[in-house]
Specification:
The protein is of the alpha/beta class and 254 residues long. It has helices at 5-14, 26-34, 46-49, 61-74, 92-104, 117-128, 144-147, 157-172, 185-194, 215-218, 235-251, and strands spanning 18-22, 39-42, 79-83, 109-111, 133-138, 177-181, 199-202, 210-213. It has one domain: Alpha-Beta Barrel (TIM Barrel), CATH 3.20.20. Helix 9 (185-194) links the parallel strand 6 (177-181) and strand 7. The chain is globular and about 70 Å long.
């Protein structure tokens, strides 16, 4: 069965947790899809884990499209959503032109960061034109310089209330779901209870409609892990050991 964003809403309504991970290339994406992941996000986090940038800001539309096409070719089941990179959706018209490229590359929708009035307007503009939008609040990496680093957000009554208001506005204009990143558990729980669309938590506690992680973090491949991630294995060491063994075999005198 090929999933759509409507299936994600059904899972949320049924109380079935949604499983989401990031995807960057063909081979690993095939494994993630076959393992039953519901949503695969071609996240701009690939700027850091695949391309070596220090933040997500430098990644371009062309780079994101390249990875999106590879991911789409690998997927047979999961919903594929692509991040709109920094600077590619400054106006509703620009956002639409950029989003069209990602849907034409095979993605089923796009993700945008932030909850300001301008972003809400952009989400409404895209949804009205048939483009599914996943919103993103809390720690929004494209705002890292404005936020002063990768710090927990919504950690005061005022900022938590602002996040709840933004979440409701994004739902009202048609976002099909909402990523909540690096916010207190209780804030994520209250937002999830207020909304009727799915929430995907990343460092936001266990009370969201589902969970999303950067796959490189989950597998222990990232150079630096967020404080809220506990890898399921140390794939970096396994690969290092395998390559070391191969190297020793090749260099062993005959």
């Amino acid at each position: 069965m090929v999933l759509t964003v409507r299936h994600l809403q059904t899972y949320r309504d049924q109380g079935r947790p949604i499983v989401a991970l990031t995807a960057t290339e063909y081979s690993l994406t095939r494994i993630l899809d076959q393992a039953g992941v519901d949503l695969l996000l071609v996240g701009d986090s690939l700027a850091m884990v695949a391309l070596g940038y220090r933040t997500t800001i430098p990644v371009t539309v062309e780079e994101m499209l390249h990875h999106t096409r590879a991911v789409v070719r690998a997927v047979q089941r999961a919903v594929v959503i692509a991040d709109l990179p920094f600077g590619s959706y400054g106006t509703p018209q620009q956002a639409f032109a950029t989003a069209v490229q990602f849907l034409q590359a095979g993605a089923q929708g796009v993700k945008v960061e932030g909850g300001a009035a301008a972003t809400v307007e952009i989400v409404a503009f895209l949804v009205e034109r048939g483009i599914p939008v996943l919103a993103h609040l809390g720690l929004t990496p494209q705002f890292v310089h404005q936020l002063g680093g990768f710090r927990q957000q919504a950690d005061s009554p005022a900022t938590a209330q602002a996040l709840r208001v933004a979440a409701l506005h994004l739902q009202e204009v048609g976002a099909f779901g909402l990523v909540l990143e690096h916010i207190p558990d209780e804030v994520a729980q209250r937002v999830t209870q207020k909304l009727t669309i799915p929430t995907l938590g990343i460092g936001a506690g266990p009370h969201c409609s589902g969970q999303i992680l950067v796959t490189h973090d989950l597998l222990g491949l990232s150079e630096k892990l967020p404080p809220f991630v506990q890898p399921v294995l140390d794939l970096k060491s396994l690969i290092h050991d395998a390559v070391t063994q191969f190297s020793e075999t090749v260099r062993k005198p005959t």
